[in-house]
Amino acid sequence: MFGSFSHKTGNADHLEEQRKLKALRSFQFSCEQAMLPETPSSSVHALRPADIKTVAAIGSLQRTPGSGADHEDLLKRTGKSLLEVSVETLAALISSFNPSVLHQSPPSAIKGAAADNQTTGLLHQAEEIVNLMKKNQMVDFQNDWKLITVFFSAENLCSSCASTQLRNCVFDNLEELKAVLDFLYKKVQKAFVNLVDSTELATSCLACQDYNNARNQCDCVGERSTVDDNILRWSYRNAWEKLLKSGRYDQKDDFTVVLQPTLQERNLLLRPVRDGFIATSETQVKTLEEYYTFMAVALWNNMMEPFGQKQPYDFTEVLRVQCPSQENPYLFTYRNSNYSSFPETTNTKDTSQRIYGTNIPCFDRGPSDTVPFSVHNLKPADIRVIAALGDSLTAGNGAASKPHDVLDVLTQYRGVSWSIGGNENISTVTTLANILREFNPSLIGYSIGTGKETTDNAALNQAVAGSHAEDVPAQVRRLVNLMKNDTRINMTDWKLITLFIGGNDLCEFCNNPVQYSPENYTYNLQTALDILHREVPRAFVNLVTVISITSLRELYTSESNSCPKLLMRLLCPCVLNIKDNSTELKKLIYFNRRYQERTHQLVESGRYDTTDDFTVVMQPFLTNVKMPKTQEGLPDSSYFAPDCFHFSQKSHSQAARALWNNMLEPVGKKTDNQEMEDEIVLKCPSEAEPFLRTYKNSNYTYSNQTPNYGSQLLCEDRSPSSPPATSVHTLKPADVKIIAALGDSLTAGTGIASDNLLDLGTQYRGLSWSIGGDASLQNVTTLPNILREFNSMIMGYSTGTGSANDSNAFLNQAIPGAEAEHLPAQARNLLRLMETDPRIDFSADWKLITVFIGANDLCNYCKDSDHYSAVNFTSRIRETLDILHKQVPKALVSLIEVMDVLPLRQLFVNTEAQCPTYMSDYMCSCVLAGEENSPNLAMVGEATRAYQLEIRRLVESGRYDTHENFTVIIQPFLRNLKVPLDQDGHPDISYFSPDCFHPSQKGHSQLARALWNTMLQPVDQKGDSFDFTDDIVLDCPTQNKPFLGTYKNGNYTYPPVEPTNEPVENWGSDLLCSERAPSSHVPTSVHELRPADIKVIGALGDSLTTAVGAKATDLLTEWRGRSWSIGGDETLEIQTTLPNILKKFNPNLFGFSTGSSKETAGFNAAEGGATARNMSAQAHELVELMRSSSKINFKEDWKLITVFVGGNDLCQYCLDKETYSVQKYVKHLQNTLDIFYEELPRVFVNVVEILEISGLRQIAASSLECTLAAKDACPCFLNPEENSSELQEIKRVNRDFQAEMLQLLNSGRYEEREDFAVVIQPFFRNTLLPLDSNGKPDLSFFAADCFHFSARGYAEMAMALWNNMLEPVGEKQTYNNFTWDRSKLKCPNPEKPFLSTLRNSGFGNSDLILKKTEPSVPYWAVIVAAVAGVLAGSLLIWVVSGGRVTRHQRKADTENSIKMVSL
Q1: Catalytic option among 646, 998, 1228, 1348
Q2: How many Å separate Cα 416 from the centre of its chain?
Q3: Tens of pLDDT along 694-719?
Q4: How many CB atoms are closer than 10 A to CB 551?
């Protein structure tokens, strides 16, 4: 039955229509409403969406026999079918251009029993659609334009191909498709037909038949490879594309067929298993329908794209509906795209008849006089058995295929395989086996002809197409069994086995970086080689280094060849689907290099040189191989099979020559960058060196000797004080009896001895620079090992590996990932351990405690500069030191100054360093990721200096020098860090663990030496720089200076406290944004609005917006010029307000308030005492003020309006619950926004979420004056008794105000206009009550009535509002911690420098609706103990109590199971 989106047949039908279109609301659809054309287009190549009158679809996807399921059509599994959803969605989209468009429900053919074959079913559907359209009176069949989508599958029922080759399968499938399209072409006038390949939506048995050995069954699990699948998939699609591009369906001007991108099951929540599809629940069915809608929208978008630019379906992000352009307002066809995917010329010559033989210039081809006992004395002629392991490159896929015969790449030409083929002889076919046959004609094991590894002629070529490294052990076991069971082979015969694997691992690594990690790759190779080593005597194993695969990208991107680019992407997506200079490409290069390096390390460990009759030798000729080029300098595709991925026989011949030469070259001098286009002349064994070269007969020195990281201590006087020291300022090294440490992963020992990324979870605490006690100073340099040379009884150091909770960690309480906020907890744990350990005399033993923290704070600084501000950082350090100062007697605290982490960026920028750049986001995104000179780097640099300065001020204040048995000393040697460089000037990564971020044992040794020397230096002579490469000799205490250096024993004079030049009333800010320019053209979309584009500012609200209390003692005057959201008095440097911030971007901003009179209020329409019901009047007033102003362009100027109201409603709720109800509050707010929506052009509206004002009770209770003043201001919150039902009710209403406001703003009500947005700014949602150093409310933020804010409080509101405006929806900070910092203001994101809206944050209209049932938590979190107004403790208790604050969002997927630990 036909349906029309322009007609509603009753309310039920209307609701159903709305339900159908529900999923479309998630898309960004902003196409202008088009006028219906006076006359429809006469040509399909100029067909516009508005011309289309009818939408239909046909298609049938049948399960294959033997799948264990009925012949149920997958398009109609459960819920709505793909056909139904696609028709409805396309019709809905077209209705924006032609409201009278009709959509045809899928024909009944797909609802009944399955047809005998796909063609019959589709023909039946096509016939039914044609008949329905002809009969329908609403359709003018001859004259109306029709959009028909045909879902066609490459799948054939197995019986149809059981006795034929796959080439015939493709032909038969093409004939079936032609039958359907021919019918439509003949019977339907005026039609645009989409052909969609839906093969992957079924559990296809596409590749089950063997190309050379036809099979009778379709149950082929284990008999197919991804290579087979991908080539077959491409072959079908290529045949269809050639059919359509032949012009067969373009003979008439009113009909065309267009092949659209392939549907893929992985995009549609369908997951095939052996017995069919996983069943879906009711919820999953609804989700599946939504994904069908996504597919239909993506199909629409591809209809808007010319050929060559169409995109695969990707549903990982919110789709924007593509609109027809003014230049190309029509649907794209082959003709109007001017597209041809088949270049007329190619640089590839037909090489099918070429002879690939070789001349062997060697005269001495004889074997050893007697069969050698040692593999290191093995001559080529001594080899009697040859074998090979690997993937399709060794199996020979496509090696002898004719040019352009892509389907023939499925054929495995094992007889010409480079390392094992034995076709003909060396004069016509160059392979390693044929070369060796010239030395020993009795060689056995080589493969001939074609076929899989299971065929007899494959012999000992056990390579399997599509294999990964994890498959090689199974190949080895088959090979061993074959050799043991072959009567021709004596296991004492000398064997040559070549292993080449890794291309498929790299091609798929991005889909599973853990499975295909360098560590797993090497482990699988080790497993395979171990089997050979254990079970195969007399064997020489060639391990060919994995190819440098990135060179394949040159062939792919070249336009000078006829390579099947789609097929190349299918075969090797992780190499060819990524962009230049992307993180993914850097990751690929890293993996590729680590594959090569780790295999070298494995072999060069000597693991396989333990017996004289077995060895493994790396053959590296492909390590740095480049793409072969033509004489014109273009990639030469003649070296590749027709799929442009596998080797042609030309490459196989060259690889055989290069491998042979590698085998004769001594280790250490082997060619590692073979030029494949060069002539390769075969080398010969010499009389002096007649053997295949091994590590031993090359006199190669293995490079795996364990280095010694010990030190010499030449100090003569190592005695303790006599009598025992009574002052920390006369403390000698030998006096220290207890050593402890606090910090992060650098102190915990993360990755110190790791040799791979998987081991980075190991904490090598015994090797930690400041607290490790493994071995002794002779081989492990750490601070405890140095001190043990003075006092062998020292205790507290950690040993071995493990966490802080393990007993061997002892007093090393550092925790990986720790930040300054975690340090107080570590201090308390340390205190508990020292007090309870019977070995420690807590009151009498001298203690040395090393504290090092801050790198993680800096690494996250750009994500939340408020939380990681210098003020907060310092307060957390102060809290930690205060605990130690107060409760730990006889202690010297060595406080390591915050390390400058910016230099570490060099390791990740310099490509020669070979560091895992793809992990930079996980380790330290604010420093290691992003571009040079980015704002993030500037922020971190400023923060580092601020951290260092504030800590120095704290310690040098004398706060911790109040008695003789305790002090804190800053050790500043890491203030200026220098990255170590090697002789070539590149970063020397030997000082770092595999992540290039944490120091290795080599680095820890240097840190320990530097720390020790710094501890001995006088305070005013301590070094403030550190170079890993320095030759650091351990210093000794001198007779004149035998003590650990302190401020007092160095006669250090504390610097005077610097007086501030600014009065306390100055609450200005510094804006560090370098980019402040407006858009190049005035934006037409609010979603592309930059701060500098705003020309007009306005505000609505109550006395908080009129700024009552801005001068704390004056409660009668409205200081509008200081209002947080609209005031413009002074400048940003003196007073922080939103206009003062915006004036830095646009000095000509208009509308802000000045002074304190109504005449100078500008566009500040707020009134003291206002409630929500007054907002409509204020909105009307503001609109009229703007409309009548001669200073602004009412229609063109962009306006920013801030609305904040509700406090008075809540405070009076109990006096009139009807007037101040939640429903009335939201209704008044809606009316206000409706006025703006209907009357104001070009406006961005901030709605500031109402705060939970129950915290006012704590403020009121802080003093008698506050109690008296605040009760009059807000009786409904302050008068009820604690835990009373009245108080619980008002708190609930407060929360409902917030929830209902959020519901309204995210309902989509204000999302239809392109130049209008309302955004909720939630910084007040979870605001923490500011506390002073005594844990009481800090009244400096409040006016004298303890209800309104002071200038300081208003400044905090302005900063929080500005930052909220820049933060994406869903990532906005939902709290304000009231910690003053002049540098808190954020800058626009350079990549998306716009004010954040729902749309440009990637959300649909209803994605963020707050559920009313969400559990509630008090937002004003109150604590008893707080230090200096900083809310570390407050935040902790608030989180423990169940709060919903998310300080910032971190990426937790640290490369799946790769354990990544930050500092």
Answers
A1: 646
A2: 43
A3: 999 998 876 555 678 999 998 999 99
A4: 16
Q: What is the pLDDT of residue 1327?
A: 59
- Higher-pLDDT residue of 1410, 150: 150
The b-or-e profile of 1234-1262 (16+ CB within 10 A means b, else e) is ebbbeebebbbbbbbbbbbbbbbbebbeb
- The token pair at 132 is 């329905």
CA 1437, chain centre distance (Å): 32
DSSP-derived letter for residue 560 is S
The CA distance from 511 to 681, in Å, is 41
**Catalytic annotation present for 505:** yes
CA–CA separation, 319 and 315 (whole Å): 8
pTM: 0.53
* Active-site hit among 60, 81, 392, 875: 392
Listed range (743-757, 925-939, 1072-1086) with the worst mean pLDDT: 925-939
Q: Which amino acid is at 415?
A: G
Instruction: Confirm if 754 and 994 have CB atoms less than 8 A apart.
Output: yes
Map residue 343 onto helix, strand or coil.
coil
Contacts of 953 (CB under 8 A, 6+ apart): none
pLDDT of residue 1406: 41
Band (pLDDT 50/70/90 cuts) for residue 29 is low
Helix axes 1432-1440, 870-887, angle to 10 degrees: 90
- Report whether pLDDT(985) > 60: yes
Q: Which of 144, 210, 505, 1338 is catalytic?
A: 505
CB 1247 within 8 A of CB 1319: yes
Look up residue 254 and give its two tokens: 């009113």
Beta-carbon contacts of 331 under 8 Å, excluding residues fewer than 6 positions away, are 47, 48, 49, 192, 258, 303, 304
The confidence score (pLDDT) of residue 934 equals: 81
Residue 510 DSSP one-character state: G
Radius of gyration of the chain (CA): 38
Give every CB contact of residue 1083 below 8 A, 6+ residues apart in sequence: 1089, 1090, 1093, 1198
- Lowest model confidence (mean pLDDT) among 399-403, 517-521, 734-738, 1055-1059: 1055-1059
Report CA-CA distances (Å) from 775 to 585, 772, 1005, 1032: 42, 9, 13, 21
Q: How many whole angstroms separate alpha carbon 1244 and alpha carbon 1233?
A: 11
Mind spelling out the 3-state secondary structure of 954-1008?
A: HHCCCCCCCCCCEEEEEECCCCEEECCECCCCCECHHHECCCCCCECHHHHHHHH
* CA nearest neighbour of 386 among 376, 397, 398, 394: 394
Q: What whole-number distance in Å separates Cα of residue 59 and Cα of residue 72? A: 13
Which amino acid makes up residue 437?
A: R
Res. 1418: pLDDT tops 50: no
* One-letter identity of residue 731: L
| Cα–Cα dist 1203/1097, whole Å | 12
369 is catalytic: no
Write out the two tokens for 508.
């798929």
pLDDT at 1448 over 80: no
Altogether, the residues listed in the chain come to a count of 1463
pLDDT of 65 above 70: no
Dist. CA 266–CA 280, nearest whole Å: 15
User: Would strands 272-273 and 276-277 be described as parallel, antiparallel, or unpaired?
Assistant: antiparallel
Question: How far apart are the two ends of the chain, measured CA to CA in Å?
Answer: 65
Structure tokens at 96: 């924006």
Alpha helices in 539-664 (DSSP H): 552-557, 565-571, 573-576, 583-603, 649-664
Helix (H, G, I), strand (E, B) or coil at 1429: coil
Q: In terms of pLDDT, which residue wins out, 57 or 848? A: 848
SS3 609: coil
646 classed as catalytic: yes
E strands, 1210-1310, in order: 1243-1248
Q: How far is CA 1014 from the centre of its chain?
A: 40
For helices 920-928 and 935-955, angle between their N-to-C axes, nearest 10 degrees: 80
